[in-house]
Write a structure and sequence with these properties.
alpha+beta; 9 strands; single chain; 6 helices
């Protein structure tokens, strides 16, 4: 009888721990769903960081739409999709079955952070409105040059994939 009681107690404790894990991850899902845009890069407002790199804000900005089953990133270089894996401290990004980066969740500030080549990109809720469709189509070449100078080519353009992958080595290329 004592053995059965101990086993039952162990099962209940395990179930409670699993429940707490699911509640924690469920909260981050609820808190992070929706549209996000870049607020700061390396501690500076996006417009200031872009100006210092000699490019427009449009070239440094990108939007993310976070859904439970996918994250869609849109910027001047186009659109990419990632599969999210929600964790208690953030979201792991996966593309083609490979882990390519992490969005770190700051519950107190309600922001997400992505490290791109050592420069933290901080995201806030909302969507950025690009100034013109011509800028989106024609800015790719300029953004490439500016990114190489500013150290955030793929970070600004497609950072969640290449900028975060393997410490951003691909982004520097």
């Amino acid at each position: 009888m004592k053995k059965a009681t101990k086993k039952l107690a162990l099962v209940l404790v395990a179930a409670m721990v699993m429940g707490l894990c699911l509640v924690g991850c469920g909260s981050i899902v609820k808190d992070t769903l929706g549209d996000w845009c870049v607020d700061t890069v390396n501690g500076q407002p996006v417009a200031e960081y872009a100006a210092a790199a000699g490019v427009t804000e449009d070239m440094m900005q990108f939007n993310m739409k976070i859904e439970e089953d996918k994250i869609t990133q849109t910027g001047m270089s186009g659109t990419q999709e990632f599969k999210p894996e929600f964790k208690s401290d953030g979201i792991e990004l996966h593309k083609d079955g490979q882990h390519v980066g992490n969005l770190v969740w700051d519950k107190d500030k309600k922001v997400l952070t992505l490290d791109v080549n050592g420069a933290p990109y901080v995201f806030k809720k909302g969507a950025y409105t690009f100034s013109s469709s011509d800028a989106q189509q024609g800015g790719e070449e300029q953004a490439s040059e500016a990114g190489a100078e500013g150290g955030a080519e793929e970070g600004a353009e497609g950072g969640a994939e290449d900028g975060a992958a393997e410490g951003g080595e691909e982004a520097a290329e």
